[in-house]
Each structure stands twice: as structure tokens, then as C-alpha cells.
Specification:
By secondary structure, the protein is mainly beta. The chain has 2 helices and 25 strands. Strand 9 and strand 10 form a beta hairpin. The radius of gyration is 37 Å and the shape is elongated. The termini are far apart.
Length: 344
């Protein structure tokens, strides 16, 4: 009867124990499984692997910030993450302020035909675009010039303004006409667009509206709501005050004022229900008395102001009112307005 030692030796001969086994056909004898993976757990540091397979209804890769908020998910189908139940879409989803794409006029340019061109920073390449996924470009003031984020439930890429964040467009010269589309751009920090014919247009409007007010003082009083703040630029402005006078001996009066520094040229006229009117054109200063008839006849009037103002120091364009006789009041009609449109 063989001893235990002899049985072990016999098994080694049968199964190749202690011998070098040749590699299978087609396999490299020098192949190495690589660095050993770190076991999962709270103490895990780095996980290394050649291939990661994620399958199943709840399978995915999820990245969180230091506060535990989900930032990025990669999943084969929509679901909710295993930490706090945040819903994610099929594919790659981004949350919060995780930047998806950031472009500036010096990074990626687009021709009227839609061809991407390399900018001064060597953009236009796939590498640059991938870099921009996580490195939003900023202007000289440290503000993102153009940032897009995925904000919809189906993963559609939407402007960051969808999340309540401002969208900045860097200043540039007017683009060439595309012939088929409208080009949005900015000059002198004002929003403009060029149409398919090549004509350029200004955009933007600032408006102040009155809620209704009775004027019964001989000293000029600001007309509530009829004020607009203007920056340094040139503006075309217009104001309209439908008013009701309860006068018998007095005269209703208005003044156009500006709190900053500006030059102005405008006209003023009033029209009564009876069709009577007066025109004061070529007004070249603020603070001039712009009056109705003397004495004002009780009834309805339209007071209109229209012209151009060039602002060199920011301020507010406004209207004030008074009456020459305290007992003779007049009322600013609700909906009276003043508005200014930049001309750049």
C-alpha cells in the first residue's frame, strides 16, 4: 500500500503540480494581470482594471462631490442613483453646475456655413473640446463667456440661463450674413443681430410705467414709475402721459430730467380732447418747463416727449410734474410710460 508521500508525488505528476504550464495557443506568455485592484469599501483609494462592464437595471457609474451631491452619471438606462434617489437619464447626465461645454470667440469660431474653425488658442480640435467639458473659459473679469449645461429630464443640452444663471456673449464685430439664418452677437456690450440680408439691428428696451398719481403742488415732484436707468450709450426715447386736468385757472407742467451727464435733443407736444395742440421741437436741455395751456381747461390731454439722448455718465431719465395753482390738480393716468432703446 503506497504511503501518503507517494500519493502526493503521484498526483503532482498527473496534474503538473510544481511544473511550468505552457500558455494556451494565441496567448502571450508574458501577459500580466496588472496592478491588483483595491478592494471596495470606505478605505478604497484607486481601482485599476482593463475592462469595466456595467449591466442591469440599476447599473451605472456615479460621481459625487465632497458633499455627496450627484454631479455626473453614466448609465445604460434611466433610473435613480443609489445614494439619494436623484433621477438620471440614459447615457451621460450632468447635474448642478457641472460644465458640459464652454466656448469663447477665441476658442471655437463658426462660419456662416457652420464650419468649425481653430481659434487663437488652437481650438476646434477634439482634444480642446473635451478639455472644455471640465474647464469653462472665462473673460478678463473671471466670468464664463458662454456655458452650456444639461438641464432637462431627457438630457437635452440647454443654456445655463435655464438654471437661472446669466449667459454672457463676448463682444465681437458684426458677423457676415449667412443668407439663411440670423446671427446674434454683441458690440459695445449691447446685444445685436444680423439678418439673412446682412442688415444689423439693435435689441433691448428699458421701460418705466406709472401706476397713477395726482399732482397738486407748485414744486416739481417726480412722477412715480416714469423713470428709466441708462448706461453710457446713445438712446432713442419716448414718453407718453395721458392725463386728466381738473383745472380752471392753473396750468399743468412737466419737466424731463437726467441724474447723470448727457446731451439731449427732443420735442414735446400736447393734445387736448378738443384737438388743440402745441409743439415745442428742438429742446436741447433737461429741466425745461413743458406746459399745457394756460389756463388749462378741465378735461383729458396727451403729453408726448420724443428724442435722443447721449449718456456720458450713467444716470436716470425721468419726468416730474407740477401745477401753477395748488387747487387745480391733474392726474397721471395709469399706464403712462417712458422707454429708451439703445442706438449702438
Amino acid at each position: 500500500m503506497p504511503t501518503r508521500r507517494e500519493v502526493v508525488a503521484m498526483a503532482g505528476g498527473l496534474f503538473g503540480l510544481g511544473k511550468t504550464v505552457p500558455p494556451r495557443p494565441g496567448a502571450s506568455a508574458s501577459a500580466s494581470p496588472g496592478t491588483v485592484s483595491v478592494a471596495p469599501g470606505n478605505s478604497a483609494g484607486i481601482f485599476r482594471a482593463r475592462l469595466i462592464l456595467v449591466r442591469g437595471a440599476n447599473g451605472g457609474i456615479f460621481i459625487y462631490n465632497s458633499s455627496g451631491t450627484l454631479l455626473i452619471s453614466i448609465a445604460g438606462q434611466a433610473g435613480t442613483d443609489p445614494v439619494d434617489g436623484t433621477a438620471y437619464v440614459q447615457g451621460i447626465d450632468l447635474f448642478g453646475n457641472a460644465a458640459l461645454l464652454s466656448l469663447t470667440t477665441t476658442d471655437v469660431s463658426e462660419t456662416s456655413a457652420g464650419t468649425l474653425l481653430a481659434g487663437s488658442s488652437g481650438a476646434g480640435s477634439i482634444r480642446q473640446l473635451i478639455t472644455q467639458l471640465f474647464s469653462p473659459s472665462v473673460n478678463a473679469e473671471g466670468t464664463a463667456v458662454l456655458q452650456l449645461t444639461s438641464a432637462s429630464a431627457d438630457g437635452t443640452v440647454l443654456p445655463s440661463a435655464t438654471l437661472g444663471q446669466p449667459l454672457y456673449i463676448a463682444g465681437t464685430a458684426a458677423p457676415a450674413a449667412s443668407g439663411t439664418a440670423v446671427g446674434l452677437y454683441s458690440t459695445s456690450e449691447h446685444l445685436k443681430y444680423v439678418d439673412s440680408s446682412g442688415a444689423t439691428y439693435d435689441t433691448g428696451r428699458v421701460t418705466g410705467q406709472a401706476a397713477g398719481q395726482t399732482v397738486n403742488a407748485t414744486a416739481f415732484t417726480p412722477l412715480t414709475g416714469l423713470t428709466v436707468a441708462l448706461g453710457v450709450a446713445k438712446y432713442r426715447f419716448r414718453a407718453l402721459i395721458p392725463l386728466s386736468a381738473a383745472a380752471a385757472a392753473g396750468q399743468w407742467q412737466t419737466q424731463l430730467l437726467f441724474s447723470g451727464t448727457a446731451t439731449v435733443n427732443y420735442g414735446f407736444r400736447w393734445t387736448s380732447a378738443a384737438g388743440l395742440s402745441a409743439l415745442n421741437a428742438g429742446q436741447g436741455s433737461f429741466g425745461a418747463n413743458l406746459n399745457g395751456p394756460n389756463p388749462s381747461v378741465a378735461g383729458a390731454y396727451w403729453a408726448e416727449y420724443e428724442g435722443q439722448v447721449t449718456v456720458t455718465a450713467a444716470g436716470s431719465l425721468s419726468l416730474s410734474g407740477a401745477t401753477t395753482v395748488v387747487a387745480d390738480t391733474w392726474t397721471v393716468t395709469t399706464g403712462s410710460y417712458i422707454e429708451a432703446v439703445p442706438v449702438v
